[in-house]
Design brief:
The chain contains 3 helices and 2 strands, in the order E-H-E-H-H. It has a two-stranded parallel ribbon with strand order 1-2. Helices cover about 45% and strands about 5% of the residues. By secondary structure, the protein is mostly helical. Helix 2 packs across helix 3. Helix 1 links the parallel strand 1 and strand 2.
Length: about 80
């Protein structure tokens, strides 16, 4: 899918699920998007997910990619504009 240029949407549960972490590690930052998937897939076990938790996704992507949170957020925003505008 990555070789075909598809985008991958990463939810906040990336903080708890290895398969999302693996996707982020394998895929170029230019192919990543974030999502809330509220009320499901919370980064915190037993808690209801909410849109504010997207910041947890950004933090984890930054950690995996060795980037700053600001750079990740800027790249994700650029990716959204490329997909939706």
């Amino acid at each position: 899918a990555a070789d075909n240029g598809w985008s991958f949407s990463i939810p906040p549960v990336i903080t708890r699920l290895q398969h999302f972490q693996t996707v982020v590690d394998m895929v170029n930052i230019s192919q990543l998007l974030t999502e809330t998937d509220a009320p499901y897939l919370s980064p915190f076990a037993g808690e209801r997910n909410e849109p504010a938790f997207v910041k947890e996704t950004i933090k984890k992507i930054a950690e995996i990619k060795g980037m700053t949170e600001e750079d990740v957020a800027g790249n994700i925003y650029m990716n959204y504009t490329n997909v939706f505008l």
